[in-house]
Amino acid sequence: MTHPLLGINHLTLSTADLDRLLTYYTELLGARLAFERAATSSDPRFAVIDVGGNDHLMIVETATAPPTHLGPLGQAGWGLRVGTYAQLCEAREKILRAGWPVGEIETLPAQWSMTARDPDGRPVDVRAHRPRTTTPLRPPVTG
């Protein structure tokens, strides 16, 4: 019997300033703190935030800052999803008002996308899926 995957349980990020990153993701982007654990003699301090749909972001406090480069496609290596284009616009405005960097919203074939930089400078794509069309696409005319 096979057991199909249901999605991503969590993604782990490292940071030298857990409180600052928690504030960014919860207060600015609307994630919810699920739980936090203090550092122990054998493990670092970390927090888990709920980013919706049973998906979580685990943030681990480390002594060194994380890498801030773009992924191999010149984009962020991970992303978050909002429900609508209007919500994406609202998120962009909120990020800009808070003084954090964020790019323009781009129209991609199946979604709208913007790349923000979190307080550690790490890129994160924020996307909204575009409505699916009920009319099939016609093949290009050749000749």
What characterizes the major β-sheet? 4 strands, mixed
Helix count equals: 2
N-to-C SSE string, H for helix and E for strand = EHEEEEHEEE
- Helical coverage, percent range: 10-25%
Number of strands: 8
Major beta sheet, strand line-up = 1-4-3-2
User: What structural class should be given to the helix and strand makeup?
Assistant: alpha/beta
Q: Give the uncertain stretches in residue-range form.
A: none
Tell me the β content: 25-35%
| Rounded mean pLDDT score | 87
Give a verbal description of the structure.
This protein is an alpha/beta fold. 17% of the residues lie in helices and 32% in strands. It has two helices and eight strands, in the order βαββββαβββ. The strands form two sheets. The chain has a four-stranded mixed sheet, covered by helices on one side. The longest helix is centred in the middle third of the chain and has 13 residues. The radius of gyration is 18 Å and the shape is globular. The model has no long low-confidence stretch (mean pLDDT 87).
Features:
2 helices, alpha/beta, single chain, globular, 143 residues
Task: Summarize the topology.
Layout: E1 10-15, H1 18-28, E2 32-37, E3 46-52, E4 55-61, E5 79-82, H2 85-97, E6 106-107, E7 111-117, E8 123-129
Parallel strand pairs: 1-4, 5-8
Antiparallel strand pairs: 2-3, 3-4, 6-7, 7-8
Quick take:
With 143 residues, the protein is α/β, with parallel strands linked by helices.
